[in-house]
Write a structure and sequence with these properties.
The complex is a heterodimer.
Chain A: H1 3-25, H2 41-50, H3 53-71, H4 77-98, H5 104-127, H6 136-159, H7 162-166
Chain B: H1 2-33, E1 39-44, E2 47-53, E3 58-63, E4 68-74, E5 77-83, H2 89-92, E6 102-105, E7 110-115
Classes of the chains: A mainly alpha, B alpha+beta.
Chain lengths: 168, 116
């Protein structure tokens, strides 16, 4: 099979997994509407390690857009919070997968924390009050937990070099 | 190589530790400095639309972006008890009573903050 076609099919598969994860986690509300745990970040993080960075970015951006279309929240507050959290955590993951300062678990924890920070910043903009910062320590602790969990998933995946079996 | 791996692990642990300490310390500060609130301020889209005294039990409606929101004050505590939003997180927050605690209804752009 055409090599680049094969590659795009695998990217599409990763996106499908990311979409299912984001859709499922949208049913788990955390204190403020729109704040998510960021489980789909595990997929994006895997892709930043083993795919090209723009492929990871396409998956991250498209999953946010598609999930909001599926849920019917496109351009609503919760969509704005997803996109702001998603983009901020992508930036953090991008930086720390290039500078290998932390293991996948550390990068995952950082991305999870910045996902929450991005969402809270957007909530501050939407609500026009900075009082929602009150939630940050609670969400920080939850993010720590989910960051470690998705970091373990990423580490397990990377150890088994699953991507190589599909591509190359 | 071995040294490099253990260094990453060490960095991970430092990171997790720092986040844990910051979160726990700020939680502790919240709990130690909190006091029973005297009044609640209701915001719509960043503007104060109502200030209410928490000592007087009452129920009233305020207008939100997509629906009216029914607010209840009872025994010095305040809650949103009816809202037309889809996820009902504001209602599930329940009654709040301490200063700086807040209730947020993002779809309605309504937030309630308690002040001491």
């Amino acid at each position: 099979m055409n090599k680049s076609l094969k590659r795009w099919i695998v990217v599409a598969m990763m996106m499908a997994i990311a979409i299912v994860l984001s859709y499922l986690e949208s049913f788990i509300p955390v204190f403020i509407p729109g704040v998510k745990l960021g489980l789909a970040n595990a997929i994006v993080l895997i892709m930043l390690y083993e795919f090209k960075y723009y492929e990871a970015f396409i998956v991250d951006l498209l999953r946010i857009l598609l999930v909001s279309l599926i849920r019917g929240t496109f351009l609503e507050p919760s969509f704005m919070m997803s996109i702001s959290g998603g983009m901020l955590s992508f930036l953090v993951m991008f930086i720390f997968t290039r500078f290998k300062f932390f293991s996948p678990i550390g990068v995952s924890v950082l991305s999870s924390i910045f996902h929450s920070i991005g969402q809270i910043l957007m909530a501050i903009v939407i609500l026009g009050t900075d009082k929602v910062i009150y939630y940050l320590p609670f969400i920080g602790l939850l993010s720590l937990l989910t960051g470690i969990l998705s970091g373990l998933v990423v580490r397990t995946y990377l150890k088994r070099s699953i991507t190589n079996r599909f591509i190359n | 190589m071995k040294v490099k791996i253990s260094m990453k692990k060490r960095n991970d642990l430092i990171l997790i530790g720092v986040i844990l300490v910051i979160s726990l310390v700020s939680l502790l500060v919240f709990f130690l400095t909190r006091s029973n609130g005297k009044k609640a301020i209701i915001y719509y889209d960043g503007e104060v639309i109502k200030e209410v005294n928490l000592n007087k039990d009452q129920e009233f409606e305020v207008e939100g972006l997509i629906s009216n929101v029914l607010i209840s004050i009872k025994d010095g505590r305040i809650a949103i008890i009816e809202s037309g939003c889809s996820n009902k997180i504001c209602i599930n927050t329940g009654y709040i009573e301490y200063s700086n605690e807040n209730i947020v209804c993002l779809p309605n752009k309504i937030s309630i903050v308690i002040e001491g």
